């Protein structure tokens, strides 16, 4: 193995040393100072000698430098910059650039000095300039646009006007200018230099440098890591060489495609560091190169090239062997046990460790085992800035002077202890690297207060995070030794549950857990935390596994396809039936609250004594004890009795969630601290809100903190409306028992958190039409779940009796039944709005006071339905009420809303002739294909060869015959079918002639389609009126579909907007950038127009236009369904071109790709959409026989997957929907071939819809397809439901899967 020669450094002159030579470069020495680095030169890799020589050359020329490197090798470039400063005896001032870096971080910041006065504090660039030192700007590509130009004049002319009135000028101009100006001038010595570090974007993630800034910096590519730098280990060196080659190729390819999405994480610095104490080559690579672990660390598929390259050198990895084991309060699988031992060893050997695994998988418990008992905790969330991770602003309680408060990380650095960085994946990209990269690599950090801190011996960071792109940032991955912490192995679940929760039905629960993993859906996967909660409930005496599992998954709000999966896990649904018929009652008795089921005591909890604030105890004088309401209250009693201290209550609007909670608290005599969350809720408003009183910063406790300290019940309402980066902090308190507060205090369960503290979080169900965030997905498994569903009819009738006692009982029941049907239609997708008990009660209340014979329900319903005054669904709602005996509702609503809404569309009824006319024996021989004569009488013609439009005959255009040029139906009579033997008698010449005539007729028909008559418009309008409600519903959902990356968020550190509570001290000190406002996040590396195109979802609809669609239309209406499906797609996607790009392509025996609508060219009006439908009919009528469904599916998936970006992190996929009449057996096609085609690409969610069938063939085909991908639709009214199910599966519209 070759070795690089060591660097030779020589000082000139032995008497008075004033310069240094590196290679051919000679430059001057400086005078040193407190900020001169020490030790960087001694540890500089020999390969960086060339970089050191180049920096000396630039210094001699008086030029500023830019060191370019991959993010994973940032530590090498930084080491070279500090080594240069040490070499020339200069002070080095460091700025870690982040997205939050602002002008105050680059020039001056105001500080309060007490007594109402303020002073300016110089930032690092100013101090570096005044000292004639070296300013190191690390991470230029992370900065937001137009921030770094603040330094342009300092770079160009060594001049900078400061906010305190002083002015920096070059040292050589000082004497001249002092005589001419009165402004205080400060000299910038000629020794001042700037060394910037950056990674080019693309291929790396970040922003390209602004040309004025780039042109002022001389650039140099830092030599990359070489395997010669490794400790002697041939296998490791060979594997690293292979990975380096792969990354170089990826970088070139990414730069050529202008992409920044490829993961670059190879860090020679990290590998060399870990290899000193880890002898196994594979273990070293898995710790330092996340792409090898793939989904376990990055949340996406492994890099196949990297895995294959490493396996070629090191051989295939050994399979995990060994059973799990108990370890105190832990149960560790074999993999987890090895990960724990490796992490503990790494920490002992001086490494900082990252534990990465799924939510609820036991990472926090393992982190507590890895880190010493005295470890501090830093809870991470999206709003944390790089500065906040280190220090936060505060004021001196005595003087009001501004101070800096150390965060947990800095406290640990000073004390030489460990700190757990919980939720590191939630930090904004670039924040972790900017704040901690130097601290983790070198043990040194430059603090916001201007001081420099060297970590005490023993400082370690244990990062706890979920898999994701955060670890794909090379500069972050290089800081840690990363360990994947997967969930328990399947074989360990039963033994683990039996050990940790004695007395539970471990076998039954383990079987359910394995099924949840086998199904592969994240929404139905039971985390370890959820399994343990269910196990504890079983051990406490609850006998039924199914309702507990459904509660843990909030299964009632999962999409139907996932609810069906959960049902399949259990042998029967008898438990559910028992629950539905159980009668619950809850009452206070003596000093207890007792919940009874069918008269038998089910749970008992103690009442609370009279507290200090009785006004906080809820009172419900109008509570109606319906069966549904009592069941919800009883569930809360059961959860308290089972030891649950935090409950998440989910349900539709208006179902009584708040009523159930308040009733429970009222019975218990519990004091309630209430807070309603919303879009603008912040970490401060949730915990402790900062205020300035007489110039002193104080914090006012929020309801959550007051409840925790005083033993009350905190009720957080509408929690799904708050940003998830805020509500996720609740997980720290509930699951980990620790919650750091903004003022430096820490809430700790078992310490200052009162034993009687309880937390109840209320939220609406997930999915459309609710607009909430993914609360349950982010932290739901930390809570015990309670679903409050819509009430049963009897419960609703009981409530209406209280609301409208004078109305007839029959009317109240019919009203309740009507609303129950509306809710059922919402569940199936027919109605977009989920009508609730609240609307039902409002109608009854109106009837009670203002109902009359003339107006009745129509008048009352107008108050509820006016929201949908212009929506087609209003007619459907009115029809439901009329079906339940409320006659004339539609007319009454029309009169009530007359002048507000357009006229109601009239109903169009479609009829079709069912069945077949039977077999036909041709009565004539075969001659040549021809069109035939048209019979003006319209009589049926069977078996002949004279008339066009007949059936079962020869030579003429018709149906069911032989030898004719193309299909033609007279629109009236049932066709007869000749046998296949008779068809075989047609000569090849006759077939060719028939095909020629069909092509001519097809071309003529296409020419005719270009015109649109009034009758044709009436035809289109008739179809449109039939599906108009479904179009409106689907368009509404597609329009509301969430692309979370494009949602507006709070943009902080702005010069205008609303005052940011977290910047009060800065504002009091006079800083300008202390506001926040709503806006779209600035994309890192794309132009805004490119960003918009970047996020479009690609949808391709394959429609069946084969001959059988035309042939069997009169039997089962399959062609009409195909046309309505196509119309539904085109109408629903109109005006949504900014979100979706779609195409409609046909397939038949003649072609696997007939373009009806091309990508980027949607039909612009209904005339063009009608032409699409007409061309579909024409193709089906004139095309050749055969079936190319499978070829068309493969081609469609291939074309769509090649169209660009798919967001792996959010699992956003393109969509292909293939519609067919499942005529497979006739052409010898195996459904399994279609199943394989539908699974061709991981980037495409492909579905098949059968709209027609001979016998039960469609069901057989659907059964052979991948689960959830095959759909059967023989009724046009089912089409919207099927389409909604498909769009939910593809995560295009919300379905509750992102709870």
From TrEMBL:
Pfam families documented for this protein: AAA_5
Protein's recorded name: VWFA domain-containing protein
A GO MF label: ATP binding
A GO cellular component annotation in the UniProt record: cytoplasm
InterPro entries xref list: ATPase_dyneun-rel_AAA, P-loop_NTPase, VWA8, VWF_A, vWFA_dom_sf
SUPFAM superfamilies with a match to the protein in the record: P-loop containing nucleoside triphosphate hydrolases, vWA-like
Domain annotation VWFA: ranges: 1098-1286
Domain of life: Eukaryota
TM region positions: none
